[in-house]
Design a protein that fits this description.
The structure is a single chain. By secondary structure, the protein is α+β, with helices and mostly antiparallel strands. Among the domains are: 68-187, Dipeptide-binding Protein, domain 1 (Alpha-Beta Complex); 270-486, Dipeptide-binding Protein, Domain 3 (Dipeptide-binding Protein, domain 3, Roll). The chain is 25% helix and 23% strand. The protein contains 15 helices and 22 strands. The protein has helices spanning 59-65, 113-125, 160-163, 174-179, 181-184, 235-241, 255-260, 288-295, 300-306, 338-347, 369-379, 395-402, 419-427, 442-452, 461-475; strands at 30-32, 35-42, 70-72, 78-80, 83-88, 94-99, 138-143, 148-153, 194-200, 204-209, 223-228, 246-247, 264-278, 313-314, 355-361, 382-388, 408-413, 479-490, 494-495, 498-499, 504-505, 510-511. The longest helix has 15 residues, at 461-475. The two termini are 39 Å apart.
Length: 512
Amino acid sequence: MRQKAGRYWRGLFAVLAAGLLVAGCGSSGKQEAGHSKLRWGFLLPTSWDPVTSRTGADINTISLAYASLTRLDKQGEAQPGLAQQWRFSDDGKTLTFDLRKGLTFSDGTVLDAGAVKAFYDRALTQKDSFIKRDLGGVESVSADGPLAVTFHLREPDYQLPYLLGGRVGAIASPTAAAKDKAKLALWPVGAGPFRIVEFVPESHAYFEKNPSYWDAANIHIDRFELTNSPDPATVIAALLSGSIDVAGRISPRRVEEARGRGLTVAIAPSLNVRDVSINRNRPPFDNPKVVEALRYAFDRGEFVKTVTAGLAKASHQPFPPGNAAFDPDTEKLWRYDPDKARTLLREAGYAPGALSIEIAVNPTMNDGMPELVQAQLARVGVKSKLRIVPPGSSTWQSEVYIAKRPALALDGTIGRESPVQNLLATYGPEGIMNLSGPYATPAFLQALDTVRRTPTNDPAYTARLRAAVRAGVEQSPTNYLYSEPWIVGARAGVKNLSILPSQIRWEGVTVQ
C-alpha cells in the first residue's frame, strides 16, 4: 500500500468557482459536433524534455504531453498516477512503485519498469539535466519485474512521492531519447493526456487527445492549442474575441471588469509568491547592513492592496498563509519600518539618495509591482531604475536563473510539488531562484535533511518543516512580499476547470 502522506496543503482560501461555468460571450472553442477544441493562453515551457525543463511553472505545460508517477490532488496529497501504489521499506531507504498495466508512450513504446529505469538513468547522468539536483538523494533506480520500479536512496527521503508528482516524475520515452535527446526539448514524447502535432518555438504548440493515456476517459478535449499568454492589458479582449478560451492569469485589478463583460473568473488556492530577489554576491548587497535595511523597506500591505486589489496575502516566505509549510514565526522576524531602513543604510555609508541600484524585471511583470518597488525604495532613500529583460522563454532563465547577473531582480515562485524541493529551488546552493547561489548555510541544509528523513505523517513533521523554512528565510537576503491565488478566466462553454495549488490540469474539463 502507498504511504499515507501527511497533508501538504491546508488552504485557507475558498475556491470561488469549484466547477467553472462561463457565461455566454460569443462562440466557444468547439470545432464540430463530437470534436472539441480548447485554446489556452499561458507560457510555453523552457524545454519539452522533463530532464532539461528548468522551472516549476513548466509542470503546467509538461503535463499536457507527459504523465507523472504520482499526481497531486487539490489538498497537495500524492495520489496514483502512472504508479497505482507505492511503499517505503522499513528503514525508509528504498521506495518501490507498482506501475499500472498496459501503459504506452505516444510513440508506441511500452511504459514499463525498464522504461522508467532508463528515464532516471538518463536524468541522473545527462550533463544538462535540470532534475538531477532534485534526485540528489537517489543512488540508483532498479526494475524489479515488469511493473515494479525501486528507488534506492542514500538516506530516507519521504518527500519523493510528492516530488514525483511533477516534472521529476514525468516519464519520457526512452526510444525517443535514444534516437535524439535534443529533439525531445522541441517535440515531447510522453504518456500524458495529449500528444503533440505542431510546435513553433516562442509561438504555440498544438496537441490532439492521446487515447493511450491511462486516464483518457476523463479527457474530453480532442484538440488542445497552447499559445503564449496575451499581455495582461489585452487578455480580456483575447478571451472575448475567441483567440483563447482560457487565460492562465487575469490581473487582480481587472477581475470585476472581466466578470462585468460576461467572463467567469475562478479564484483558487495557489503556491504563487512574488519576491524581490537579492544577490549577496554583488554590490551593494555584499554589505550586510544594506541587506538588513531592505528587510524593513517593503510595505507588504500596500502591495496586497494596490497591486492585487486585496486578493493576495502578505508573506515573508516562499509559501502562502494556510499552507502546511507556512511558518507563522517567520512573519514576526521583520516588520515594515522605513525609519529603521534609512538608519541601517546610513550605517552602511549611504546617505539618503546616495545609493542607486538597477532592478531587473521580467517583461511579464507589468502589473504595477515594479513601479511600487521603486516607490518604496525611494521612500527609504534608494534610487533605482528598471531594466526590462528581453522577452523569450529562455532569456530570463539564462540571465537570472543560470548566470545570476542582476544584483536585484523582481521574480516569483509558482511553487513545487514537494516543500523541500521548493525550499531548494529558492534557497539551495544550486537553487534556480537563489540569486545568491551557491550560498546556502549548513544550518539550512541540515534542517532540510531532517525534513526529508521525517515521514509526512509523523507528528513532528510540520514543526521540522517550518523550522527549515525559517532557516532558509534567515539565510537569504531575498524578500518575499505576497502570495497570490490562481485567477483564471474562461469563455463560454468551458466547464469544470481543475485548478490545483501547483498547476492547472485538464481531466474533467469540457468544451460545449
